[in-house]
Specification:
The complex is a heterodimer. Chain A is built from four helices and no strands. Chain A is mainly α. In chain A, α1 (about 5-15) crosses α2. Classes of the chains: A mainly alpha, B alpha/beta.
Chain lengths: ~80, ~425
């Protein structure tokens, strides 16, 4: 079964919304909000769109926008992937 | 309230930053060349003025790169340079006392073209969420506002080539209304295939392949203009506030006027002479007070003659030095007027009129004293800058040296700057 891992999520976010060397973004930030790391709603939408394309999964906007941290988003996406499969 | 300019930021094909641009411009260094950004062979226009030495990642955080078109990447860097040149810290002012006005005639075309290609090749899911604003005319105003926390009056003006001057007129209005500091100008880039073909139907571009003869305003051999990219942003402040900060003042925005040409086929004359007269009246001066004209210089026989007739009508035949340094870099759309004003201020600072390059045989219908080699007139304190845009836009701005009677001249105003 495919799962979205933190390193892969991080890659997708950096591709979608760019890097900011001044902000640490590693596994220590699993529970930090995307907002606190400077990712606004558009950055988030762009990331979500890449996850949908990469994993062939549909992430309903209203539900996915409620996922405020990397951990919450990973759990949500992996649930959806499991359900889809 | 007197609106003065205290900082300049410039990105042009022949120089990034004030010092490099100004040196190249006085020396007459042309950067019109074959387009390298894409293969131009399939298009009737193959020359442009490209900025080739700008690396956005050197100036912007990685977060900004995926969400910005080239116009915004250039504009953000230029806004940094302008504020640094003015020694201004918007953060030291109240957010709502600082404003921004930029002009834009095309928007982030290259970004839009890329996303359109994704839409058709890969499907709608592949279009960037940042498409929502990155292409938009107001994007530079918004992004510069965010970067420097300029939360007072903000505007985005669309009036083709005249926009850069209209932005400066609007900045003066905002200063008069009490805003403490305004960044004003335009930065534009239309060097992608979609932007190029969008400009072809107007028929204003030269299709020559020789950079030396492509753009020859006021010449008997003029066949059109050449596109360039870049522009300028100016820091505009109230004179008293600038004096209180003790900073160098490049000059005053003394006059501004804008008018529309009559509809095509009308028997009425073009609006350019009227625009010039109104800008002088607004500045409270007469034609003999003006020392140099920076022309729109379309490079098209009809438009060149209209402009030359207007200049000759107001200032007398061959009555005032006229120049068009844009012949070195191409026409920068909305970036042009602001860069011409910056150039006029540098000319006033150093007492030298930069040349028009290329033009050698002046159309006898153009009775103007065209400056084709850098010239040092006896007096260079007041400049008139003209711009005309597709759609009938005519704008004129008068800038003049800092006034001596109010003590705005200080010793370092006339020293060459290091940056």
């Amino acid at each position: 079964m495919t799962t979205l891992t933190f390193p892969r999520l991080r890659e997708l976010i950096l591709e979608a919304a760019g890097d900011d060397e001044s902000i640490i973004f590693d596994e220590s930030r699993l529970d930090a909000t995307f907002e606190s790391m400077g990712y606004d709603s558009l950055a988030f939408m762009e990331t979500v769109s890449r996850i949908e394309r990469t994993y062939g999964v549909d992430l309903p906007e209203e539900d996915v926008m409620a996922q405020k941290t990397p951990r919450a988003l990973l759990d949500f996406v992996n649930d959806r992937i499991a359900t889809t499969e | 309230m007197t609106a003065v300019i205290t900082g300049l930021g410039i990105a042009a094909p022949n120089g990034l930053g004030v010092a490099d641009y100004w040196r190249a411009t006085v020396e007459g260094t042309s950067r019109i060349d074959r387009i390298t950004r894409f293969d131009p062979d399939r298009y009737p226009v193959r020359l442009a003025g490209e900025i080739r030495d700008f690396s956005p990642e050197q100036h912007l955080s990685g977060r900004l790169l995926p969400q910005t078109d080239r116009i915004t990447q250039l504009a953000l860097a230029v806004s940094d340079w302008a504020l640094a040149d003015a020694g201004a810290e918007p953060a030291a002012l109240h957010d709502f006392d600082t404003g921004i006005v930029t002009a834009c005639s095309a928007g982030g075309f290259e970004f839009g073209q890329r996303e359109l290609a994704k839409l058709w090749h890969d499907g709608p899911q592949h279009v960037s969420a940042y498409m929502s604003f990155s292409w938009f005319y107001a994007v530079n105003t918004g992004q510069i506002s965010i970067r420097h926390s300029l939360r007072g009056p903000a505007a985005a003006l669309v009036s083709d080539q005249a926009g850069g001057l209209d932005a400066i007129g609007q900045a003066r209005r905002q200063i008069r209304a009490g805003t403490k500091l305004v960044i004003a100008g335009g930065v534009e880039s239309t060097l992608c295939p979609m932007a190029l073909i969008s400009q072809l139907p107007a028929g204003n571009l030269s299709t020559r392949d020789d950079p030396a003869t492509a753009y020859l305003p006021f010449d008997v051999d003029a066949t059109g203009g050449v596109i360039g990219e870049g522009g300028a942003l100016l820091v505009v402040e109230d004179a008293a506030a600038a004096r209180a900060r003790g900073v160098r003042i490049y000059g005053e925005i003394a006059g501004y006027a804008a008018a529309l040409d009559p509809r095509p086929g009308s028997a009425r004359p073009p609006a350019v002479a009227r625009t010039i007269r109104q800008s002088l009246a607004d500045a409270g001066i007469v034609p003999s007070d003006v020392d140099v004209v920076f022309a729109d210089a379309a490079g098209l026989p009809v438009a060149d003659r209209q402009e030359a007739h207007a200049i000759a009508e107001v200032f007398g035949p061959h009555g005032i030095p006229v120049t068009a340094p844009k012949t070195m870099i191409g026409r920068l759309n909305s970036g042009m007027g602001a860069l011409d004003v910056a150039t006029a201020l540098l000319a006033i600072r150093d007492g030298v009129v930069p040349p028009t390059v290329g033009t050698t045989r002046i159309d006898p219908n153009c009775q103007i004293d065209l400056v084709t080699a850098a010239r040092r007139p006896a007096r260079l304190a007041t400049a008139l800058v003209l711009a005309r845009g597709v759609g009938g836009f005519n704008t004129a701005v008068v800038v003049r040296a800092p006034s001596t009677e109010t003590g705005e001249i200080d010793d370092h105003a006339y020293l060459p700057t290091a940056s």
